């Protein structure tokens, strides 16, 4: 038995033959860029104090996916990352485990071996030709089936941005739907790579296509392209999730990834989620941070809240 199953929050894929009809009927609204950026900026100015701040910081820890996606990854490094995810800091701080570890396909079996079958930490694997997405569909689906077979609880796929930007939205839809089917019981996170989508309107449209095609989560970035996650782009995606929920009753998760490095930034994101989607999304089942470097800054802030003084970065193990 694997890690506890996530709550089912994603969409049911539309059959492949219906994809072009579904794309034509999306009715995606135009994004007001001025208002998005003004509202996003307002979230960064909120002041959160004392017990509320501590609760928010602990929530951020529970929502972090610790990630290692390097060519020099080894089984030992993956085991170290899993250990960090299970116990982010000294037990005296009473912290939850992190939500997941995210690794390359070849490393999934090592993460499963270390975490076992009853861990609270989920195993996510990037797939479908990460980070480019420029692989044949057959190869992508073989990779997805392999990582699920090796023990992945979650599949982080990348869309074919070239197809999307060329206007072949049906191809993007069909590849997501096929990946969802190949993922079986694993949850599917669809990475839009928003830094390559150029406009807020494109981000909004890509979000809608991903949700219609069966994504359980939509995710901003691979972490390999700049800009990665930003508050305005995340807000556009959260509003797409909100409107999709109002239209269908289905709750889709959200994961900003890359570029979120400080506890202050994390709290701004949590405020944005609460005010855009409500408390139902303030859970690791529906919101994640893809930001390994974020964790230790959050831990430093927690130590300050609990102990009354800051610890140096070297007091915490590296993620």
CATH level 4 superfamily = Aldolase class I
Run of helices and strands: HHHEHEHEHEHHEHEHEHH
By helix and strand content, what is the structural category?
alpha/beta
Low-pLDDT sequence parts? 12-17
> Which strands sit side by side, in order, in the main sheet?
1-2-3-4-5-6-7
Instruction: Specify the overall morphology.
Output: globular
Concise description?
This protein has about 325 residues and is α/β, with parallel strands linked by helices.
Outline the structure in words.
There is one protein chain. This protein has 319 residues and is an alpha/beta fold. The protein has one domain (16-306): Aldolase class I (TIM Barrel). It is built from twelve helices and seven strands. It has helices spanning 19-24, 33-43, 50-62, 75-86, 108-115, 137-149, 161-165, 169-183, 200-213, 231-248, 263-277, 292-307, and strands at 65-67, 100-103, 122-127, 154-158, 187-191, 217-219, 253-255. A seven-stranded parallel sheet has the order 1-2-3-4-5-6-7. Helix 4 links the parallel strand 1 (65-67) and strand 2. Helix 6 (137-149) packs parallel to helix 8. The longest helix is centred in the last third of the chain and has 18 residues, at 231-248. The chain is globular.
Task: List the main descriptive attributes of the protein structure presented here.
single chain; 319 residues; alpha/beta; TIM Barrel; 7-stranded parallel beta sheet
Which helices and strands occur, and which strands form pairs?
Blueprint: H1 19-24, H2 33-43, H3 50-62, E1 65-67, H4 75-86, E2 100-103, H5 108-115, E3 122-127, H6 137-149, E4 154-158, H7 161-165, H8 169-183, E5 187-191, H9 200-213, E6 217-219, H10 231-248, E7 253-255, H11 263-277, H12 292-307
Parallel strand pairs: 1-2, 2-3, 3-4, 4-5, 5-6, 6-7
């Amino acid at each position: 038995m694997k890690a506890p199953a996530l709550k089912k929050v994603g969409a049911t894929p539309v059959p492949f033959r219906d994809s072009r009809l579904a794309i034509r009927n999306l009715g995606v609204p135009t994004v007001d860029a001025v208002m998005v950026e003004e509202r996003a900026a307002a979230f960064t100015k909120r002041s959160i104090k004392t017990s509320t701040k501590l609760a928010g910081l602990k929530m951020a820890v529970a929502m972090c996916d610790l990630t290692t996606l390097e060519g020099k990854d080894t089984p030992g490094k993956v085991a170290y990352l899993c250990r960090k995810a299970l116990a982010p800091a000294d037990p005296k701080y009473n912290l939850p485990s992190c939500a997941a570890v995210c690794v390359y396909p070849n490393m999934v079996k090592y993460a499963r071996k270390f975490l076992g079958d009853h861990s609270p930490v989920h195993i996510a694997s990037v797939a479908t030709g990460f980070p480019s997405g420029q692989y044949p569909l057959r190869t992508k689906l073989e990779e997805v089936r392999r990582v699920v077979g090796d023990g992945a609880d979650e599949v982080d796929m990348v869309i074919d941005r070239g197809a999307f930007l060329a206007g072949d939205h049906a191809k993007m839809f069909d590849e997501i739907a096929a990946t969802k089917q190949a993922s079986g019981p694993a949850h599917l996170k669809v990475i839009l790579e928003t830094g390559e989508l150029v406009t807020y309107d494109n981000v909004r449209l890509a979000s809608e296509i991903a949700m219609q095609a069966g994504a359980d989560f939509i995710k901003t970035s691979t972490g390999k392209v700049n800009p990665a996650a930003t508050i305005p782009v995340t807000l556009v995606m959260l509003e797409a999730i909100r409107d999709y929920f109002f239209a269908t009753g289905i709750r889709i998760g959200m994961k900003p990834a890359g570029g979120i490095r400080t506890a202050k930034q994390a709290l701004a994101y949590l405020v944005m989620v609460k005010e855009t989607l409500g408390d139902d999304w303030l859970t690791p089942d529906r919101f994640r941070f893809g930001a390994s470097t974020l964790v230790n800054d959050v831990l430093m802030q927690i130590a300050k809240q609990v102990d009354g003084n800051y610890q140096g970065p070297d007091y915490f193990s590296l993620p």
